[in-house]
Amino acid sequence: MSSERFNQLVAKHSNLRLRAAVQRRELGATMNEIEHQLSGLDRGIGAAQRLIKNPAVLVGGVALVALIGPKRLMRWATRGALVYSTARRFMRLRRPD
């Protein structure tokens, strides 16, 4: 093998190692972000499970549907979800980086 070919292979190997290091760092950052988002989801599911297990919440939910009506309740829930998502997006825009 010629010296020139050897130098090319060494340079290519070095470049590949550098690219792999950059990709590992990017993957780590992505994994941290996914983990952060999933931890929020886990907390929300845990809170929902605790609420559902509470009989007073179940009775209150049934009473609310009976008093307000399912259509109106669904309309309110839809509007509330829209307001919530809009507020979250606005807060994300205003968050300093």
Order of SSEs, N→C?
HHH
- Percent strand: under 5%
Overall shape: elongated
Helix share, percent: over 70%
Q: What's the short story on this structure?
A:
By secondary structure, the chain is mostly helical. It has three helices and no strands.
Write the layout of secondary structure elements.
Blueprint: H1 3-53, H2 55-68, H3 70-94
Q: How would you describe this protein?
A:
This protein is mainly alpha-helical and 97 residues long. Helices cover 93% and strands 0% of the residues. The chain contains 3 helices and no strands. The protein has helices spanning 3-53, 55-68, 70-94. The protein is elongated. The mean pLDDT is 88.
Keywords:
mainly alpha; elongated; 0% strand; 97 residues; 93% helix; 3 helices
